[in-house]
Amino acid sequence: MGHKKGKKKKIQDHSTELKGILEIVKSGIGFVSVEGQEKDIMVKPEKLGTALDGDEVRIELLPARSKNGRREGIIKEVLKRHQNEFTGRLEEKEHFAFLIPDKLNMSVDIFIPLNLLHEGKNGDAAIVKIIEWSPKTKNPVGEVVSILTNASDNERAMQGILVDNGFPLHFPDEVIEETARMTEGIDSDELHYRRDFRGVLTVTIDPADAKDFDDAISFKKISDNLFEVGVHIADVSHYVRPGTPLDAEAYKRSTSVYLPDRVLPMLPERLSNELCSLRPDEDSYTFSAVFQITSQGKVKDYWLGKTVIRSVRRFAYEDVQAMIEGAEGDHKESLMKLYEITQQLRKERFSKGAINFSSQEVRFKLDDNAKPIGIVIKESKEANQLIEELMLLANRYVATHVSKITVKEKPLPFPYRVHDVPDEEKLRLFSSFASRFGYRFDLNTPASIARSFNEMLEFVKGKPEQHVLESLGIRTMAKAVYTTDNIGHYGLGFDYYCHFTSPIRRYPDVLVHRILFECIQQNIKPIKHLEVQCRHCSEMERKAMDCERFANKYKQVEFLQDYVGDEFDAVISGTASFGFWAETIEHKCEGMVSITDLSQYDDFQLIESDYALVGQHTGLRFRLGDKVRIKVVAANIEKRQLDYTLVSMPEQETKPKKNKQQGNKQNRKPKK
Question: I want to staple 383 with a disulfide (CB 3.0 to 4.6 A). Which of 166, 195, 320, 400 is the partner?
């Protein structure tokens, strides 16, 4: 594919006022990172105003500089709050109360009038929402939204993770009232504007534990080698209208958040699990991409538009996988033809430069109290690929369709999903590392890089180095984002790509639906500030991923609390100057072996190009992907931190030479 390299914008400091993201350290001093500025701008505590950690702010540069030459500034305005809700402990006085926040870098307490304390009592753990903060007052005013005192440790931890990353736990009353007024069923007037698919075989295929069904597939044979395949997506934009409280809240959240024991939805359950969910034997509004396609996966024609469907059967992935592997089942002939078509689509995609990273999901098995009792590894099989390829097809065709439309001779602003080519330095390091396992990379062109990745991923299957090369390869890749500046999607090998297929859980898909419908109606009203909305959605996606990572880490620590003192086989999953991370093979739980623990063997130095800690005297090395045996020595659930100690060494490529002073340290066990 013709992939354009993304351009990084530089902001010139022609003004004394800039905007950026504020980070407050434990001392109370703030640092504002501004795009295009080499150094962060320092803000002393008395010049923070009403800004809090993570806020987007407008800052005025001051003439003064700090001792190390760093520019100083004063915050003039909070442009966007990172979070409005905070966890902490209530402290009740005679005529008012305060929340003492849990966050160590929040230097102000939240003032709470007694009428907003609700059922909170002195000493309670609580969540408080800031409702007002005048620049003339020292403390923000808040209201108690939830009492956590009697909640389990897990509940407090999960809610805290969500709140600290700016995700509100509750929907505003006006949003709940808006959704409650929405009517069920199909309006006969709507049918005049929609293509009716209720007579066509339509099914949903989802995970067994899914509660919202936002996509369905229809199938109809046209001739011996031509089939009509419909990708039908819940018509969320029919219910979520611009300018409403519901739309404002959906945009604010931008995404659903998936934690080990819960989902925090982007939309209220009235929509996500009821009105918009494509449940069997119910008529549903959908927005569809319908393809005329051959058995070889060649698209002969396509149609995009609003529809009404009726799913006749809900399948779990396991049901369809069993049929692919030979079992009998409902509508097997149609599903097997879909399987044949989608495997051709998949083959074609990889032949054109898509990168085939394997999809493996590690989940904790939880008991009734959300305590982890084991892990489950979910592999992406052919049934998953069937749905994946159809979703990719719909997303690609929608983006390609809109890309051809212009307004006033300019491309129509549209939220593309883009993925840049890998960073050259990261790629060079990875290529050098992979060569130690015998894999050679051709770094001459984006296409040759993708081809090299695929060849490596194919050869590495089932080998000891598979996991480390796959995970490191993914880290080498750029992050996919939403933007109106289309540079293509390198990882998928597409020139045009967007997110159209999950509007129940992603706000960019809602935007795509609105713009596409205007294009179809030929009534285009370009969305103002769409790039700003794209950046917000990308930011909230990153925060949701942080939530998922923090929550998974909490579960890892909670799980291994019962195994402190036990030994496990592990793989080195990361290296740093202060030690290495190791992931247990059996449970996929990552902990740290500190450089202090290793000092009994040698003095170790980090060699970044080799992803290794190397002993300066012995030549001992601890390298990414090496197998080691570790003992769990500490599991700190508050810090979400696992500490391991080394029990036995990884195998060394070459044995270091002995000398009289040091002996053969390589074969020593740790000192007890």
Answer: 320
